[in-house]
Amino acid sequence: MVFPHRFNTHCFVEARATQKTDLISRSNLACIEFEENDIIPNTITPNGDGLNDRFEIPILGNYYNSELRIYNRYGSEIFSSKQYQNDWPEGDIDSGIYYYILSIAGKENLTGYIQIIK
Prior knowledge:
CATH topology of one domain: Immunoglobulin-like
CATH class of one domain: Mainly Beta
Strand content: 35-45%
Helix content: under 10%
Order of helices and strands: EEEEEEE
Largest sheet: 5 strands, mixed
Mean pLDDT: 77
Distance between the termini: 37 Å
CATH architecture of one domain: Sandwich
Shape: globular
Number of helices: 0
């Protein structure tokens, strides 16, 4: 089952002045549309304040049959979950960079990193 997605459009403006005079400038406008649910945060701060304490993956609410595996910087698997419930990390974990592989049935694996800041 797939639920409806929301779309966001973000526009960026770049203004530059030439080296000869500050009176001449040029701007470019670029708009990018993306699915809001495709964003996977890459930084968490598990300090107990209730903000960004867990690795939350919004896209998982739209899919069944998923598996999340998390590895430390040495390549050792430190966490694995089928049907991940946005509950990692539990307990004390060192600050640093961790890597994940998210497998969703019928889609390519999503990979990335998570930075833990304490």
